[in-house]
C-alpha cells in the first residue's frame, strides 16, 4: 500500500493495479478496499490497459482524516491521486454515493477527467421509497459526537439503505458490526455528498451542468427496484450520459461484468 498527501495534509492510502490510463475507483458509504475486493479484482482484469487506484477514502482504513469536513476536501483527495498517476486525464468510477462524488469531482474543474462512470447512484427522485429525513446529516453528526456510533450506523442502515430495523438489529451480532462502527463518523460525509438528491424531488439541473465528458450510468438488471429510477433520472439529465443496465443485483455487480463495460466505454465501443 502507498500513500499520497492531500492538499489539507490528509494521508490517502491506496493500492494500484496495472499500467496505462489512470482509473480511480471511488467507494460509496461504508466501503473501502479492505472490505470491498471488487475494486482490486476489477483492476487486475484491466491491468493491461489501465492503472487502477483502489483507495481508502478519508477517515477509512489506512487513510487519515482532517476536520472540518467538506466535499471539496474529498475532491482534492482524488486530485492528489490523479497527480500521483501523472496528471491525467483520469477515468473516475464510483459505486453508489461514490459515483456522486465522481460527478462532483468532474464538475469542479479541479481534477483532469476524461470519463465518468457511476454504478447505481442512490438518488430518490420519486415516491418509490421514503426520502431521507431532512435532519439526517445532523442526526448522524449528533450520534457520533455523543460517542454513539452504533446509533449513526442504525440510522444509515434504516433511513439511507432502507433495511428493516429488525435486520439492522441482527447485524449487531455479526463480524461486520465492528467494521461499521469504525467508519461511522464518515457516514455523514456521504450524507453531505448526497445533499438534496434523496429528497424525492427531481435532480438539480445545475449541480453537474459543467460536465462535458462522456458519462456512463450503470445499474444492475436485477437490483432493488428502488435503485433504478435514480440512474435513469441522471442519464436523462446529463447530455453526455449513457444509461447501461448490466447483470447485477443488490446494489452491486461483478468484476467480470464491470471490467469489460469500463474498457468498452473508454474505448468508445
UniProtKB/TrEMBL annotation:
Annotated keywords: Hydrolase
InterPro entries per UniProt: AB_hydrolase, AB_hydrolase_1, AB_hydrolase_fold
GO molecular function: hydrolase activity
All residue ranges annotated as the AB hydrolase-1 domain in the record: 37-259
Pfam families referenced in this protein's UniProt entry, alphabetically: Abhydrolase_6
The protein, known as: Alpha/beta hydrolase
Amino acid at each position: 500500500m502507498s500513500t499520497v498527501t492531500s492538499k489539507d495534509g490528509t494521508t490517502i492510502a491506496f493500492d494500484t493495479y496495472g499500467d496505462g490510463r489512470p482509473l480511480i475507483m471511488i467507494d460509496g458509504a461504508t466501503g473501502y478496499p479492505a472490505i470491498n475486493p471488487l475494486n482490486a479484482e476489477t483492476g487486475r482484469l484491466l491491468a493491461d490497459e489501465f492503472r487502477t487506484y483502489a483507495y481508502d477514502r478519508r477517515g477509512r482504513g489506512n487513510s487519515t482524516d482532517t476536520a472540518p469536513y467538506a466535499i471539496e476536501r474529498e475532491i482534492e483527495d482524488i486530485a492528489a491521486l490523479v497527480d500521483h498517476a501523472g496528471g491525467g486525464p483520469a477515468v473516475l468510477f464510483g459505486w453508489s454515493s461514490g459515483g456522486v462524488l465522481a460527478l462532483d469531482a468532474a464538475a469542479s474543474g479541479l481534477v483532469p477527467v476524461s470519463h465518468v462512470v457511476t454504478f447505481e447512484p442512490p438518488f430518490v427522485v420519486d415516491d418509490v421509497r421514503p426520502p431521507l429525513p431532512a435532519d439526517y446529516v445532523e442526526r448522524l453528526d449528533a450520534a457520533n459526537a455523543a460517542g454513539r456510533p452504533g446509533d449513526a450506523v442504525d440510522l444509515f442502515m434504516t433511513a439511507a439503505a432502507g433495511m428493516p430495523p429488525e435486520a439492522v438489529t441482527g447485524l449487531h451480532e455479526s463480524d461486520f458490526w465492528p467494521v461499521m462502527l469504525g467508519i461511522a463518523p464518515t457516514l455523514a460525509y456521504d450524507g453531505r455528498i448526497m445533499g438534496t438528491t434523496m429528497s424525492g424531488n427531481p435532480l438539480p439541473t445545475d449541480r453537474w451542468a459543467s460536465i462535458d465528458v462522456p458519462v456512463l450510468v450503470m445499474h444492475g438488471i436485477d437490483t432493488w427496484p428502488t435503485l433504478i429510477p435514480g440512474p435513469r433520472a441522471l442519464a436523462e439529465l446529463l447530455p453526455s450520459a449513457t444509461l447501461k443496465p448490466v447483470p447485477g443485483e443488490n446494489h452491486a455487480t461483478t468484476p467480470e461484468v464491470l471490467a469489460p463495460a469500463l474498457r468498452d466505454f473508454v474505448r468508445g465501443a
